[in-house]
Every structure is written in C-alpha cells, then in structure tokens.
Write a structure and sequence with these properties.
Helix 4 packs across helix 5 and helix 4 crosses helix 10. The two termini are 17 Å apart. It is built from eleven helices and 16 strands. The protein is of the alpha/beta class. It has two domains: 216 residues, Alpha-Beta Complex (Quinone Oxidoreductase, Chain A, domain 1); 131 residues, NAD(P)-binding Rossmann-like Domain (Rossmann fold). The strands form four sheets. Strands 3, 4, 5, 8, 15 and 16 form a six-stranded mixed sheet that branches. A six-stranded parallel sheet has the order 11-10-9-12-13-14, covered by helices on one side. Strands 1-2 form a two-stranded antiparallel sheet. It is globular and about 60 Å long. The protein binds NADP nicotinamide-adenine-dinucleotide phosphate and zinc ion (2 copies). The site of one zinc ion has 5 residues, from loops.
C-alpha cells in the first residue's frame, strides 16, 4: 500500500482536516499520480455536509484532479512516469452494461465508481478523492491534458467543464439558438464559455447584480438579474435551451416560462430538496424538463481536446489546502470567481498529518 495524506471531513459538521490513509498498490492497469491541483466543486461541499444523505466518513473529496505520473503498471500504454495526467468524477464502472458499452459510463447500470465516497472494490472501503497528495487510478479512467493549457486552470474542466459541455452537445446547442445559463459559479462560467464557443446567443441569469459585468467578460451576450421580475419578463418564451447550474432550491417554474415551444430546461445543479414543477409550464408549450450527469470518459477527453484547440480554461482562484474550509464558506455565499483550485504543494505543510 502507498501512504497518502489528504484532507477529510469526519462528520457533517466537522471542518476538513489533515488525514492519513493508504492508496492501493498499483495493478498492471494502474497509473500512480502525484496530485498537483484539485478543483473545489460545490458537489464536494454537498457531500461533506451530507446534503444528499449518503456520505461515508471520513470523506476525502475532490474530483477535478491534475497531476504528474509517478509510475505506471506493466499494461499501461497511455502514460509513462513524468507525464501529466488528469482524473475526473469517476474511477471505474462495470464496463459491460449498455451505458458503459456506449461510452456513457456515468450512467452505468451497476453504478459508476465515483472518485470519492463510492464503494472501492480494491480496498473494500470507500474511494478517497483528490484533496490528497496522490491517487492510483485505472488507466481507462485517466485523461490527457493538452500541453498548451495551464494545469491549475485545466483542473476544473474535469467536472465543471464536462458537466456543462456534455448537455450543450447532447441538446445540440449552437448558432441560431438563444441559450440561458442560470447561476454564475464554477459550472455556470464554463457553460457560458462553451455555449459561446458553440456559436449560441448566451444569456446569464444571475442573482448577483455584481456578476453581470463578469458574465459579459466571460463571453455572455446579455446578463439578467433573475430576482428582477421586469428583467425576466423581457425574455419570456424566448430560449431554446436553459442550463440550470444552481446549487440551492430555487423557482424552476419562473425559468420554464422563459423557454420557447419545444425548448428544454436541463438541470445540472443538484439541490438536496425536490423541486416543484408546475405541469402547465411544461404542457402549454410542449417544454421539456431534463437532467444531465457529468460526461463519459471519451467525451471528457473530447472536451479537454476542444479546450486545447480553443484555449479554454477555467477562471480560478488558487488556494492552499489550509484555506479549504474558508473556500467552502465562500461557496455557500456564491462568492467564487469562478472556481477555487487547491495547489497541492501546500499539503507538504501537513507532514505530521494524523
Ligand atoms: P457554485 O460554484 O457554488 O455555483 C452555484 C451558483 O448558483 C452560485 O454561484 C449562484 O450564482 C447560484 N446560486 C446559489 N444559490 C442560489 C439560490 N439560492 N438561488 C439562485 N441561485 C443560486 O457551484 P458549482 O460547483 O457550479 O455547482 C453547482 C451545482 O451543480 C451543485 O449543486 C453541484 O452539486 C452540481 N453539480 C452537478 C453535476 C452533475 O453532474 N449534474 C456536476 C457537478 C456539480 P449567481 O450568484 O450567479 O446567482
Ligand atoms: Zn463536481
Ligand atoms: Zn456499466
């Protein structure tokens, strides 16, 4: 086993704190990665706080991982020691069900093995994520980062990037379409960049007046204060597609009313409470209320390559791991521009981790 240190939560109320654990000895298929950067996703916060009611403690979060390969197993072909490798939200799946066969492992019928807080067939415990100095991952679930991309800025592509890229591609968002991105946080700011790159007319719906200028700077054509009835009314029945990235309960019916006939509202945000939907808002204009989960491994690589070709990375605020609890408090207040990324070199200060 490989000794590892990271940051873990031990209960729904405990702050993240230094934690020592072990990674498995690499199999012939495995890549052993020294983690350089890990993004902070709002899902990490939901999980740590037990919002979704299914967290095992201790919980080491983190699924936006970029690092350097330390060593590879004898059957590994994609990487050699010293290469840059990335890991996203999944580290395994059944590989044989129809979803896995079609390359959408996130919808694996047996349940994909998520990067943290999932049953770990190798250790018999749960998987531990990227707020750590190393990880051991099957080559099939590792990704290549285009050489021109800043590594810290690329890390959040592994979740915030693919989670917005995938639905925009699935619903064929592009030129001639008007698209709303709801919530300008980690996911939302990437939704803006991709929708713009795909040629759509992009409108950000935000609760934060002060983010309007940022929305335009990130590539949106318009920014709307979603708490203003007047501003919202001007967009009634006008959107082909709405990407909802909001992390907390909110009024989805007000958003459905902004869709054109046959338009789709896709939920990627995961508030813990059920969201009431007025069926008249769907039936009246044959609108669709949909959802989407991250993206498959092949599509994640496609997204990374697209970012390489178009020089797209996330706008980040780099933090030391000792600042992660403060970063969580800021996430709760929607105060992030637009993704926190942990510089894992800061973990070296935790040499005495318990
Ligand atoms: P984030 O950076 O905190 O951004 C969320 C944004 O939502 C905030 O910046 C804020 O934007 C808006 N918001 C927050 N509370 C709100 C409220 N009460 N009413 C209206 N708007 C509100 O979070 P994130 O990392 O982008 O993640 C967003 C959500 O997606 C989380 O629930 C996360 O778990 C989920 N997620 C899902 C997937 C998936 O596969 N489907 C993958 C990753 C994350 P404004 O200030 O602009 O209003
Ligand atoms: Zn995430
Ligand atoms: Zn499967």
């Amino acid at each position: 086993m490989i000794k590892a240190i990271g940051y873990a939560a031990t209960s729904t109320t405990a702050p993240l704190a230094p934690f020592s654990f072990e990674r498995r000895d690499p199999t012939p298929q495995d890549v052993h990665i020294e983690i350089l950067y890990c993004g902070v996703c709002h899902s990490d916060l939901h999980q740590v706080k037990g919002d979704w009611g299914r967290t095992s403690y201790p919980c080491v979060p983190g699924h936006e991982i970029v690092g350097r390969v330390v060593s590879v197993g004898s059957a590994v072909t994609k990487f050699k020691a010293g290469d840059i490798a990335a890991v996203g939200c999944m580290v395994d799946s059944c590989r044989v069900c129809p979803s896995c066969a079609e390359g959408v492992e996130q919808y694996c019928e047996k349940g994909a093995t998520f990067t943290y807080n999932a049953p770990d067939k190798h250790t018999g415990g749960v998987t531990y994520g990227g707020y750590a100095n190393s990880i051991v991952v099957d080559e099939s679930f590792t990704l290549k980062v285009p050489a021109n991309l800043d590594l810290a800025g690329a890390a959040p592509l592994l979740c915030a990037g693919i989670t917005t890229y995938s639905p925009l591609r699935h619903w064929k968002v592009g030129a001639g379409q008007k698209v709303a991105v709801v919530g300008l946080g980690g996911l939302g700011h990437m939704g803006v960049k991709f929708a713009r790159a795909f040629g759509a007319h992009v409108v950000v719906l935000t609760t934060s007046e002060k983010k309007k200028a940022d929305a335009l700077a990130l590539g949106a054509h318009e920014a709307v204060l979603s708490t203003s009835k007047e501003e919202m009314k001007a967009h009634r029945n006008s959107f082909h597609f709405i990407l909802d990235t909001v992390s907390a309960p909110h009024d989805v019916n007000a958003l459905l009313g902004l869709l054109k006939r046959d338009g789709t509202l896709c939920q990627v945000g995961l508030p813990s409470e059920p969201i009431p939907v007025g069926v008249f808002n769907l039936v009246g204009q044959r609108r669709q209320f949909a959802g989407s989960s991250i993206g498959g491994i092949a599509e994640t690589q496609e997204m990374l390559d697209f970012c390489g070709q178009h020089n797209i990375v996330c706008d980040i605020e780099k933090i030391d791991i000792q600042q992660v609890n403060e970063a969580y408090e800021r996430l709760v207040r929607s105060d992030v521009k637009y993704r926190f990324v942990i510089d894992m070199a800061s973990l070296q200060k935790e040499a005495g981790a318990r």
